[in-house]
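PT: before anyone asks, these are the final sequences, not the draft ones from last week. 1408 residues across everything. Please model them as a single complex and drop the result in this thread when it's through.
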Amino acid sequence: MDLTKLLKPKSVAVVGASEKNGFGGDVCRNIITYTKDMSRIYFVNPRRDTVFERKCYPSVTDIPDVIDLMIICTSQKTILPLLEEGAGKGCGGAVVFASGYGETGTEEGIRQEKELLERAEELGIAIMGPNCAGYVNYTDHVYAFAFISAERDRRGNIGVISQSGQLCLSMMECPSMKFSYNISAGNAKGIQMEDYMEFLVEDEHTKVVSLYIEGVKNPSKFVEVLNKAAAKKKPVIVLKAGRSNKGQAIAASHTGSLSGSDASFDALLKKFGAIRADDLEELTALSLLFSTIPRLPDKAEFASMNLSGGETAICADVGYLNGISYPDFTSETLAALKEQLPGYATPNNPLDMTATLSYDADLYAKVLETVMDDPNVGMVLIGYTLLYEIADPAIYYMYEGIKKVAMKKGDRCKPIAIIPFAENTRNPEYQEKLFRIGVPVLPPPVYAFKMLKKLADYINFDYSSVSHEIALPQRKSDQTYALSEHESKMCLKEFGVAAAEELIVTSRREAEIAAEKMPGAFAMKIESAEILHKSDVGGVLLNLKGAKEAGDAFDLIMENVKKHCPEAGINGILMVPMLKPGLEMIIGVNNDPQFGPMIMAGMGGIFVELFKDVVVYPAPVNKAEAMRMLQSLKAFKLLNGYRGGEKYDIDALCDTIVSVGNFAAANKDSLKELDINPLFVYPEDEGVGVADSLIVKYGEKRRC
Amino acid sequence: MDLTKLLKPKSVAVVGASEKNGFGGDVCRNIITYTKDMSRIYFVNPRRDTVFERKCYPSVTDIPDVIDLMIICTSQKTILPLLEEGAGKGCGGAVVFASGYGETGTEEGIRQEKELLERAEELGIAIMGPNCAGYVNYTDHVYAFAFISAERDRRGNIGVISQSGQLCLSMMECPSMKFSYNISAGNAKGIQMEDYMEFLVEDEHTKVVSLYIEGVKNPSKFVEVLNKAAAKKKPVIVLKAGRSNKGQAIAASHTGSLSGSDASFDALLKKFGAIRADDLEELTALSLLFSTIPRLPDKAEFASMNLSGGETAICADVGYLNGISYPDFTSETLAALKEQLPGYATPNNPLDMTATLSYDADLYAKVLETVMDDPNVGMVLIGYTLLYEIADPAIYYMYEGIKKVAMKKGDRCKPIAIIPFAENTRNPEYQEKLFRIGVPVLPPPVYAFKMLKKLADYINFDYSSVSHEIALPQRKSDQTYALSEHESKMCLKEFGVAAAEELIVTSRREAEIAAEKMPGAFAMKIESAEILHKSDVGGVLLNLKGAKEAGDAFDLIMENVKKHCPEAGINGILMVPMLKPGLEMIIGVNNDPQFGPMIMAGMGGIFVELFKDVVVYPAPVNKAEAMRMLQSLKAFKLLNGYRGGEKYDIDALCDTIVSVGNFAAANKDSLKELDINPLFVYPEDEGVGVADSLIVKYGEKRRC
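LR: through. Structure below.
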């Protein structure tokens, strides 16, 4: 549905306009405070002639103009008739604050919501909400927002969409935050989060898209929009509820969102270079950072400049804990700094400039320029605790120094940010002044360096090496069935996963004959889709040799299985050459109901389970992505010649991951899960070996 | 040296009193602003009759009073004569702002510092500094501080000591921070950090001791004070530079502090339950938290109450990421909440109260009381973004509600803290009001939950189960030498570390005879303190049996060693029964030059090296501490019956750690390092086995 009339209306009716507290009054107050041109804004209330000295119309129909947007401040029962009325006036969008819909979880609420959305669709009216706090379009001065905030100019380039009105308001109340749009999406069942996202990614006034979401409703559009944003290099910053089980439950009960697996969601963001924030403060501060700096750093290399040794040590330590890279200064930079700084200073990165320089704007500018001009530096971090009430004049000089450099360098000025060391201290006047020359004031170090690491990852993200496809699933059944080991391996083999020559025998005699063709030792395993833990029932014998042992093994396995699983359907016994042991990896797939098959890779059992050293990534993947998956594991070092040891066949391992991803993508609608455990990885150029494999699918049992 | 005259003077002379900017002027301005009783404060300046309309004396000698403290604002060259003069007036303390001493790193500066301190000692004058910013004693209104800060009442119970004047000032400037003392220690070579610490731990007005340190100068006093603070249950919160190599270098160059190993320092803090902050904001906020809450929670179990679903989800998620425990509410609590909350709310912990309650103080108080009365809850966290400029009145009602509960409950009121969701938003008036009823406003979630986890650890810390001794070393030599494997094992055996029967043979014949007495297979290894990598030179043969193999092995090993290490001194060949394999652990010791032997425990190679799954703890340890060391490892699960697997002999492993600790403590002055690698841990009741061991000592080679 087209959102133009909803989000960029030329004429607006406020239905339920009022002077009292509450939706009607607060919206009118907001509009009067912020709107520049009131000529096509109409207040509607049958019980009043005027509201805040402006004419009030008895009904929408009475307004002598076409109406693009209705801001409906009245209660649930009035909504449907109002939509009918609005449609007659050309209305194409409505903000509905009223609650009592799907979020109640009641049958009646859900029915009402469905009826509302169906009617709106028929009438061609895009509904924001219900149960929302509305929105502000700062670019065009449309103020359809129901909460009162402190008065200040907020027009800027951050586009916010939030499933919580409270969090919208909190972002508005942060000094220096400047928005293109701030949208409280509410239940967002008609016009969805993903529709607003698309709008903002395309909106030329929006530089950063900033989201609080409780769940994704339209996965395919979500993926499409992430893809689009990555292609445009427009940062998308996401705070999503549901890292914890309790968080998931709260998100589900709050706006009735279906929250998929958090690991899948996280993997999806990573794939498209979207940035995940851990809380609202980080979402806000990251948005401010991306919004304020005039351009991204060319490289993720930071210089840190401070006024005291203590502060310099904090930047060194907290930077290090967060993986921030402080390159060494070149000898030219060091020589220049030696001249510019007092004799007792020791030039280095992070740099303790000493406090004396903060009282000399020219010298401060000179040092800043020296540091910025170092070819190893991508961005300059200035440590300074900007107090709320400024008692010490240092910031006056520092500001002048920074401004001087920013003006002199123009477009060539590398990005700068301020890091304070304690909070509740940012003087609004100077925060604003710094903002206007493109210098954001970040939160204190624990937040700041966490954020800068995310900025670094964003800079290093290479969209061109990412496969753009995602295998969004359409599950057709809730029934599941397993494939046997042999069936599983054969399915994977079709997609290029290495498989040993193996065969199924159904009698002692066949086993004896087969044994003679085996090149070396072999294993025999019961072949049945109904026996998943083969060893537990005596269904596996290893390291066998020759016809006699094969025959005996056949009889013994059959006897064991008959005893333990008399009912199980059996295909025979699988005879497979013993694999030589290698480095043990696990490759798995879990099919996320929203985002499709997620490939999981990690080293054997305890590495995955105790150390959580595992990577998850959406299928399919290309080889570069497979390589990055492996590189993100701590265990990667073991693959890559740890302590002068063996280098393993990483190339073959990447090929296997790509093949598994292709298989999973091709079977996205029917695959439940897949496990290759263990996958032996052999030394360089010697490939990999699938020691066991299991596929579980949705649907009625059949061969894949 | 007694610090009374320095830190609690009855009469004060400000030498170099002035009206200009700079030390002399700023100290006078501070004193005039804050001092209640000026009757025994004397300004000294030979060139002025008055300063700020107060009489100025030409010299200290001219003051008609005895002088406890001199605040010396004049330059380096005046200091020594002033000390002489002050001594004649009974002076026992002096604050020296002047720089140019040891911090310059020059010979002249170091000489000057030495002279200053020696003379002060002779005269019985306790020196703060040099190169410091002075201190404030808020309890007795002594304002000997050289930086100007915004005027407000800061009298409270946080005692700060900082090696950075800048960081002192930043803490002073944080709203609601209330101090007993705030001490900028400067070079702190005479009166040291540790002396101030001792003073504050003993000071009855100080509830929390808060430190920024760049290095410890007096390890034995540092340990003594930590011990004392732990015994008194007075929290010590420490920000220490040097987590990173760059941070260590900066700390070393800033105040010339010697920074020991950060891991040792960290281990020491853990042992005594001291709390480590990651940056200044955390140090400040942790201090405020401990300072403000009227008592500690009885248990580390939190309830979270919020006004919106989004905020509740953030508390759930960020709490979870930080290991915060939200117990389920009892059925009684849930039933009461169901009655008190609106119908659409879903009572749970964390709790979304919905916003409606924040406009009804009585109902808010009722819900808060219900949550607080839940027997599972130790502390209540109220999520609320306290804005700087309050536009929405909710906080009025919430504050009244909280106050009502605090008043009603009195001493039985469980601790409460406020968590805002975005920063730069704490209204000073309400922050102060909340502070006065014992409710701190924490920083946003990423900081807040990190801090609350540290509070939880502090509550759970059990000083009674900690051994109070620390083996502080006095290294007597820089030379080092290694013991052979057998020597190492024998040294450890004396302290109770299990050792197999093993013997050294020096001829083929001896080897053959010994072989016949071996109960099973055995290993033979070259026995030499000069060959540390025995396998690399063909000095190890495993799984031998019988006299013939023993004899051949003897010859082969001797031949190999003669070829590869013709110069090495050799004791013979060690014959040792093959140990059955077990779970492989590493136990090590590194002797920290400041804090003595640190025991290291972890699972074999890659666990320690790739996953950093290793614990470090000061020697000696008791068995409870050994157990906690193991429990802190991720690999502990593997010892303790992972996935229904074997349970290993944790008891014997703890005994081994205790024994190693005792050995290390007994050899604290001579031990360099020790390695038991691997230590095989066997199933329950089957003990452990030392497979190899190496001890390196300081000094001339001799048997331990």
